[in-house]
Amino acid sequence: MRTLTLRAGARVGVVAAEWRDAFGVVTRGRVQLELRDGGPGPVLGRDAGFWLRGTGVRALRNPGRRTATVRIVTPGQDRHTTERSNDMNSMRDTGGGAGPASGRTSRTHRLRGLAGTGFIATLAAMVATTLAAALARAVGVDFEIPDGGETIPLPGFAVVTGFFSVVGIVIAVALLRWSARPAERFVWTAVSLTAISLIPPLLSGASTATTTALLGLHLVPAAVMIPVLARNLRTRSG
């Protein structure tokens, strides 16, 4: 029996000879399996067991901020090895194995789940923004833009909110797929883009009431989308 220690962000290549008959158990933190094609596999939490022989997994990595440890057992060194291997066979039969196929299925499920949650949040953001715009118009904000003298219609707020919310979903899905710290990077990216989006209203030359309302309407969808997507990224990446 031996213990493999992975510091935050560390990656250890899998040597086939060392894992031929070995059975691993995560005893601390989280460990992500890196598949043969270099894609991220499932993330295993504490007490999760796995074996790597014949799976095509090429490396183990620590996606978290805390040190992770893996207890590695080989036949003949621990009397519980057979029992744990049988448990893992049961996990594999029910789709809980750590092979490449189950890794791809898990990854696809996580990406689709994030996208589905994002689209629901998008609808909520569109409704909230449109209602806020209607309320602002009711109290006297005309939403007239001096350049061309056009007035922004209420449906326009819904369309723009929907478009940029979908952009946010795409960014979140991409980070979940390729980033080791998707939630943190998404929040940083989304907040930065929201701040940039506040510049056009300030330069529009509209009245103070319209400018103030437009600034607020930029923040409404951000307040809906960013927390929802960030929370889901933390859940699905962990």
UniProtKB/TrEMBL annotation:
Residues 77-86 have a biased composition (Basic and acidic residues). The chain crosses the membrane at residues 114-136, 156-178, 185-203, 209-230. InterPro entries: DUF6069. Keywords: Membrane, Transmembrane, Transmembrane helix. The keyword Nucleotide-binding does not apply. It holds the Pfam family DUF6069. Residues 73-107 are annotated as: Disordered. This is Integral membrane protein. It comes from Dactylosporangium roseum.
